Amino acid sequence: MNTKAERVLVTGGTGFLAGWAIVQLLERGYRVRTTVRSPSRERAVRDAVANQIDARDRLEFSVADLSTPHGWDAAVAGCDYVIHAASPLGGANPDAPDEFIVPAREGTLNVLRAATAAGVRRVVMTSAANTASPTSYSEHGVYDETTRSVDDPSFGAYRRSKIIAETAAWDFMADHRGATTLTTVLPGAVFGPILSLENLRSVQIVQRLLDGRLPGVPRIGLEVVDVRDVMDLHIRAMTAEQAAGQRFLGTGEFVWMRDIARALKAGLGERAKRVRTLQLPDVAVRLAARTDRGLKEILPGLGRRSTHTTDKARRLLGWQPRPAAETVVGAAQALVAWGVVR
Asked: Sheet harboring 7-10: ordered strands across?
């Protein structure tokens, strides 16, 4: 429990990750300020947080957008820490990767410029595990934080945005001589219970399985991690002296999509009757990807089993993620409770 009522800025308050960051910080006694792109979004954030905790007067808002430097100085003013969880959703045009990349990079730099100018103690930035993955998808093995992905135009826009934004962050901090330190957290595939229907992100995979929209499951493996564990890692990294200037992988248990489908069947019983556990042949997935952009983006991962180790987070920060089955079932139960699936 934080007894000093230190203030933490959480960027992107309407997001899946940010919502749980706000909840957990409030539970630990911090004061929280979060950014929204418009004052009209404040009510949605308060309602989402209220599903878990009464924020009372410890939650406040600041208007700031990743795409512009305006508003960030005011957002960080008086804050001890920053958790930069905001990430661009991209535009409607899937052939325009800059709609992801530019706001991710410039938004990160806007946050860091404001935070360092204000003398914030530490910025903890949400990156992604695939920024610590080999360039070639044909490579298999176990990777740690010393692996640094290099941008490649053949990558999907989301992965490129994470690689470029994290690289820009470390480059910026290399020239910084002030008191502010940076730590980055690299989560895997983030699932778990939702606080609202805003930005379901990875949880949409569970939604599609429960709806029976998938005739089977592709041979894709995911390092499933619970959103609550991801944000716990952020907060541990925020205050631990030994976390300054470090990267921490926050991946979970490696499971195949078929394992996820089976976990839903076992955990939800009749409510998962539409979930199909048939594993689709790779050739069928490749054929379907000719007309389905979503499938096309996952093709490089078919049958791939490279993983990441979280030994560093466990050893230095005492971090311990929960089992993948518990996480995906928790996500499914939340979707049912919210009426997203029947």
From this structure: 59-63, 31-36, 7-10, 81-84, 122-126, 181-187, 247-250
Name residue 288's amino acid: A
**Whole-angstrom Cα distance, residue 172 to residue 115?**
12
pLDDT tens track for 285-338: 899 888 877 677 778 888 888 899 999 999 999 999 999 999 999 999 999 999
pTM for this entry: 0.94
The DSSP H or E segment spanning 132 is none
Residues 166-200 pLDDT 10s? 999 999 999 999 999 999 999 999 999 999 988 78
> Is residue 277 situated within a structural domain?
no
Task: Please choose, from the candidates 7, 125, 25, the residue with its C-alpha nearest in 3D space to the C-alpha of residue 66.
Answer: 125
Identified catalytic residue from 4, 162, 273, 296? 162
- What is the rounded distance in angstroms from the CA atom of residue 167 to the CA atom of residue 169? 5
Q: What gap in Å lies between CA 35 and CA 128, rounded to an integer?
A: 21
**Do the beta carbons of residue 22 and residue 196 sit within 8 Å?**
no
Q: How far is the C-alpha of 331 from the C-alpha of 38, rounded, in Å?
A: 28
DSSP secondary-structure letter at 63? Answer: E
Q: Alpha helices of 60-97 — where are they, by DSSP H?
A: 72-76
Instruction: Identify whether 273 is a catalytic site residue.
Output: no
In a domain, 215, yes or no: no
Flag whether 297 is in a domain.
Answer: no
d(CA 170, CA 118): 18
Asked if 27 contacts 55 with a C-beta cutoff of 8 angstroms, the reply is: no
- What CATH number does residue 171 fall under? 3.40.50.720
Domain that holds residue 233: 7-192+225-251+306-322
The residues pairing with 62 across neighbouring beta strands, listed in sequence order, are 35
142-143 and 307-308 beta bridge pairing: parallel
